[in-house]
Design a protein that fits this description.
346 residues, mainly alpha, 2 domains, two-stranded antiparallel sheet, 13 helices
Length: 346
């Protein structure tokens, strides 16, 4: 059984790598790499929330806070260091450390799900409000001025390690971001197949039962929360390199809400669903951005309501169900009841 499971995991990993490589190489033939880079970055951000919410049962309304912390860390460290290698590492470590402290406070404090969601949302809004007030010359970290609502422009972009002048933008930045998403996806898949991931899913289903088995659910939730924050921080750093400016809008309520919508639309409790949801919703938003008849947030709210009412499992699980029905012959597709956090595969 263990050998069969190992072979199955290796086969699935190989399929993901091959399909991912084909998508990375093929998408630039049909779409602009500038937009593709944004979709890849948002896909990584959605995956960070999909990991902790869909598989850990931790509803975080403040995932945008870690996204923004990663972007600001990258910009501030880049200005002070002069290149991007160490800032990129710090953009993962700083949000992860902040999330570990915040998570320890929340989980060891035995806060309920509602209070946890409120605290993470308030944490994000506090950062948003504070950074908007940092326009004066007194708000400086080393050589970097925070800039208030104008943000921080003019920091070193992503560069080849050891060669600060070889900055990556355009097509090279897209390939770096796409490969980073593929690596993160594989690492998340490995984590979920490990004993840690299986226990995290067990905690999502029944905390009390897992606790009675002797596992420290608070410590495991804290670690999972920090891992999700680190992934969001990496996405934030890549976004900063793509946008070439960071502003407090990264911490806004709108940004936090959109991440949740991505996960619901794509399919909560799946690995690929949040990435797909981010791509679909962002593409719709960009398309609507060129007209003035409809408000973007109104459309996003309508999309959320429609999916909750008519497609609560999300896009990815339904596509998987239809695919299984197609290759299985003419049997009618069966709707299986999803676990509390969604389907635990895909």
């Amino acid at each position: 059984m263990a050998m069969t499971t190992g072979r199955s995991a290796a086969r699935d990993t190989g399929v993901v790598v091959i399909l991912g490589a084909l998508l990375v190489l093929g998408l630039p033939l049909v779409a602009d790499t500038n937009m593709l880079t944004l979709l890849v970055i948002y896909g990584m951000l959605a995956l960070s929330l999909g990991l902790i919410w869909g598989f850990g049962g931790i509803l975080c309304f403040g995932q945008a806070a870690f996204f923004g912390l990663g972007a600001y860390t990258f910009a501030i460290a880049g200005i002070n260091i002069g290149e991007s290698t160490l800032p990129l590492v710090l953009s993962v470590l700083v949000p992860a450390a902040v999330a570990a402290l915040l998570g320890a406070f929340m989980f060891y404090g035995r806060l309920g799900d509602v209070y946890l969601a409120v605290i993470t949302l308030v944490f994000s809004l506090i950062l948003f409000r504070w950074l908007n007030t940092t326009a004066g010359p007194a708000y400086v970290i080393g050589n970097a001025r925070l800039g208030g609502f104008n943000g921080i422009p003019g920091f070193p972009l992503l560069n080849v390690p050891g060669y600060p002048r070889w900055e990556l933008w355009g097509d090279p930045l897209y390939y770096v971001a796409a490969v980073a998403l593929l690596v993160v996806f594989l690492l998340v898949s490995w984590l979920l197949r490990s004993s840690f991931g299986r226990i995290a899913i067990g905690i999502r289903e029944n905390e009390e039962r897992v606790s009675l088995l002797g596992y420290d659910i608070r410590a495991r939730k804290t670690v999972l929360f920090a891992i999700g924050a680190g992934i969001a921080g990496l996405a934030g750093a890549l976004f900063a390199a793509w946008a070439e400016v960071v502003t407090p809008s990264l911490f806004s309520l709108q940004q936090s809400a959109e991440i949740i919508i991505w996960c619901i639309v794509g399919g909560l409790g799946t690995r690929f669903g949040p990435v797909l949801g981010a791509a679909v919703v962002t593409s719709v938003k960009i398309t609507l951005g060129g007209q003035a008849m409809l408000d973007n947030m109104l459309v996003l709210g309508l999309i959320l309501v429609l999916f909750v009412l008519f497609l609560p499992r999300g896009i990815a699980p339904e596509l998987a169900r239809l695919w299984a029905w197609a290759i299985g012959g003419n049997r009618k597709p069966v709707r299986r009841r999803a676990p509390r956090g969604g389907v635990a595969d895909g």
